[in-house]
Design brief:
With 270 residues, the protein is an alpha/beta fold. It has one domain: Vaccinia Virus protein VP39 (Rossmann fold), CATH 3.40.50.150. 40% of the residues lie in helices and 17% in strands. The strands form 2 sheets. Strands 3-2-1-4-5-9-6 form a 7-stranded mixed beta sheet, with helices on both faces. Strands 7-8 form a two-stranded antiparallel sheet. Helix 9 crosses helix 11. The longest helix is centred in the last third of the chain and has 15 residues. The chain is globular and about 55 Å long.
């Protein structure tokens, strides 16, 4: 018997985490919202589609700038939470691999940390190119880079203790769109013009190692899939290693600060 597909596992994960996303990893991604909406020049007269919109923070920021915004996510509970938090904005359940909009119908598309969760990113890029207006349509996305301290912390704990042979759905590379070369190749292959890149020095801050672990389990999906598939003893060993390792990032002021850099990529449809 085969297990769930990557898409189905992601959908289940995000559907379960909508209620506390904003108070976990959502606090880090807030730092990318203004750069994203500025990259697509969101404002009056600009129609923006935000794919993988989550609980709607980016869509709300674009709306405040006067843009006509549509927020779309494949997780129904994320859309329900977005509607609750930001009434009056057009939020829809939808699949980025089959965007339910007409050709050349939007001026801009944004994607805040969503591409690593797409099972078929080439299909998503083709759909983004399709719905953008030619010559002027702009696409901006953010992705985590592989040099972040959080990924080093968690990766070391996993490598030291996890059984990497547990059954998991086949997943696309996590940091593909955080690598300028890989991202550029994918966008050019999808028909976009030469992209531009900007590094965003995002950070996570908290008071306790437990807050770091909570952020992992409450704000992410891919790594918890691996941890939750372990035996209870192995899972405890991984989590204890994360708790212990978090102390390396404690500052003189007493708080824990973890660098979580991201790559902002902007490209135009010719």
């Amino acid at each position: 018997m085969t297990g769930p597909s990557f898409r189905d596992a992601e959908l289940d994960g995000w559907d379960r985490k909508a209620g506390y996303w904003d108070d976990s990893l959502g606090l880090v991604t807030l730092g990318a919202i203004d750069p994203l909406v500025e990259a697509v020049e969101a404002g009056p007269g600009i129609r923006v589609l935000d794919i993988a919109c989550g609980t709607g923070a980016l869509a709300a920021a674009a709306a405040r700038r006067g843009a006509e915004i549509i927020g779309m996510d494949f997780a129904p509970t994320m859309i329900a939470e977005a509607i609750r938090r930001h009434p009056g904005i057009d939020f829809r359940v939808g699949d980025a691999e089959a965007i339910p909009l007409a050709d050349a119908s939007v001026d801009a598309v944004t994607c805040s940390f969503g591409m690593l969760h797409m099972a078929r990113p080439e299909r998503v890029l083709a759909e983004v190119a399709r719905v953008l207006r030619p010559a002027t349509g702009r696409f901006a996305l953010t992705s985590w880079t592989s040099d972040g301290e959080f990924f080093a912390l968690v990766g070391q704990a996993v490598q030291a203790h996890a059984d990497m042979g547990v059954p998991l759905p086949v997943a696309p590379p996590m940091f593909r769109f955080g690598d300028e070369g890989e991202c550029r190749s994918a966008l050019l292959a999808a028909g976009f013009a030469e992209p531009a890149f900007k590094k965003l020095p995002l950070v996570w801050t908290g008071d306790t190692p437990q807050a770091v672990l909570d952020t992992l389990h409450r704000g992410t999906v891919r790594t918890p899939m691996l941890i939750e598939a372990q035996t209870p003893a192995i899972r405890q060993a991984i989590e204890q290693a994360i708790l212990h390792g978090s102390e390396r990032y404690r500052q003189r002021a007493g708080n824990i600060l973890i660098k979580w850099p991201a790559l902002l990529t902007t490209a135009r449809r010719p």
